Amino acid sequence: MIRHLYTSLMATLLAGAIALPLAAEEPDVGRREYLNACAICHGESGNGEGALADLLTVAVPGLTAITAQNGGTFPMLDIIHIIDGRTGLRGHGSEMPVWGAMFRNSIPEEAGLYSSELIVRGRVLAIAEYLRSIQED
After folding, report:
1. DSSP 51
2. How far, in Å, are 2, 7, 37, 83, 131 from residue 90 at the CA level?
3. Does pLDDT of 74 surpass 90?
4. DSSP 8-state code for residue 44
């Protein structure tokens, strides 16, 4: 169990180490990932009023007040887990896509398990960083 947690933590840190330089080179990478994966439900501005929001059976939350709802601290790890969805921590009921699995399934098998997991974690981290950037005061 501890070895699994250590491996997971190290992979997350490595994904961050890979994703952050990419984000520095392409500052809109998180926004682009958000628009492609999240905006259809959460809205382009993160207000919870995306094109599909009214069709879902659960309320789609706005994403610009996460920090305010958490005592002034952005809960980065929780947000990463919710976006990824493979950890058991699911966002607002069962309709939230498991983006970790969806991102993983879009990567060719030739990339290999570890490389593809780093790509998935980098994409998830990019979205989480973008969400942190759109928090309202």
Report:
1. T
2. 23, 22, 16, 8, 17
3. yes
4. T
